[in-house]
Amino acid sequence: MLIYIIGTTLLVFGFYIWLRKNDDYWKKKGVNFLAPRLFVGNMGEMILMKKSIGAIVTEFYKNAQGLPYLGIFNMRQPVLLLRDTSVIRNVLVSEFNKFRDNGIELSEEADPILAKNPFFLKGDRWKIVRAQLTPLLTNAKIKAMFPLVQDVCKNMVNYLEREPDANEEHGLEAKELALKFTSDNVASCAFGLEEHSFNDPNAEFRKMAEQFLKPTWFGYISFFITTLFPSLIKMLKIPNSQRHISDKFKEILTKTVKYRKNNNIRRNDYLDSLIELKSKPMPYEYTDDYMVAHAFTFFLDGSETSAIILSFALFEIAADFSIENKLKNEIDEMLIKYNGVITFEAVQEMTYLDAIFSETLRKYPPLMVMTRECTEEAKLVAPDNPGQEFKIEKGCHIYIPVLGMHHDPQYYPDPETFDPDRFTENAKHALPKNCFFGFGDGPRTCLGRRFANMQIKLGIISIVRNFEIRVNYKTKVPVEIATDFFLLGARGGLWLNFYKRKNETTSN
Length: 508
Ligand code: HEM
Prior knowledge:
This protein is α+β, with helices and mostly antiparallel strands. Helices cover 50% and strands 8% of the residues. Helix 12 (243-262) crosses helix 14. The radius of gyration is 24 Å and the shape is globular. Bound molecules: protoporphyrin IX containing FE. Protoporphyrin IX containing FE is lined by residues 118-119, 130, 297-298, 301-302, 305-306, 309, 366-367, 370, 438-442, 444-448, 451-452. GO terms for molecular function: heme binding; iron ion binding; monooxygenase activity; oxidoreductase activity, acting on paired donors, with incorporation or reduction of molecular oxygen. It is found in: Endoplasmic reticulum membrane; Microsome membrane. Its cofactor is heme.
């Protein structure tokens, strides 16, 4: 019994010492830092779900004004929070080779599909996969997908016309609406599957997209394990909490590929390109898992983030009649110029729509904090802060406070105001450099930004052309950031009303 008590005491004491071991990490390096609390480090409010990661990191960012960087702790893991724009530029772009990875651990054995998403891949494998996927999302490929998205726009407009809640007291939740739209687009453009999210409440793709990123207890617990013991994820082969969804996706995709092969069907879409990769020489064995993984990347990354931006853009348009009016006028001008049809070229010419798109990405960046891992020792030099050079060690984690910088009045005056005029042709050249990260920056910048740009803009056009939008009384204004989600979300949702314009026939 005594041995048992002594053993347990030693174990608890050893664990305590281990938890505290890194506490003076930043002090020893001579970096300004926030003192960590036991177990949670500086992320206690996020762990207790009182604040989102974006809100906490923004707070640290604001409080460290004047510093080029700040040492913090994610539980016991030291993290360098960057503030200086030229240091950020070096990390993301100029010295990218020393900061190549995103620093997120997944077990490839437990998660064979998700772990092959470029976002999680590391080193040379990331480089190879990125180079293979980039040609599948060029401007020409996106243009070929344009008519498919237009078809989904028609379904969305029809839905808004017949759905009684759209123009009645109850209203519609914009993110739900947008997720129906984006998941149908992805199903159609990437896999040639006609989804019916606007007719069927159980449409498979939308349900999977919705469920995959939903917080779960298992996900919560594995967050602790990943952060405290990153290597355990691989050793114990712990899968992500929604592994069953990637398995389900694999089942659907395998059937689709088989059907195409057996019936000799070619659609010249993303899936065809992935099938074609099989016949090309590869620097690695291109197994079926790779094909499914690349498709899953499009599915996962293509729906959620775009739905966030589309829903916030609709909310801001609904909240300001002058913005809505100006945009409607721009749409009307294009309709006159292009004989009543919104073409790919017409969308490229819409500068005010583009400004709304950029301002939405500024005010509501879905990825509120970007991460990097130092993969080779490097010197961080901040020209505006002479004498504050710092040698960063291999393995050190980095946070880039996207939300904080996008809301910093030093870069964007009156940052809480939604003002598309910041991004009009003349104004955007005067914007400060290296403080806009809606799609990230450098070689790891968002792979799907062209597709996102096209589907979101078409979604906005089809709605504003056909409906006047108003904010429903259920929306909390000013918007509060949801605390249970790692991407940016609105607490309580964005509820809107859609009133059919009198002089418009149904059109995309
Ligand atoms: C408005 C919608 C979107 C936003 C705001 C967004 C934002 C981002 C951001 C901030 C990153 C990290 C970039 C970095 O670390 O420098 C990223 C990475 C990525 N995005 Fe997107 N994204 C969007 C849509 C899409 C779409 C539609 C796809 C796919 C079709 C996609 C695929 C990816 C991939 C694969 C990566 C990882 C790139 C890499 O690490 O090499 N994204 N995205």
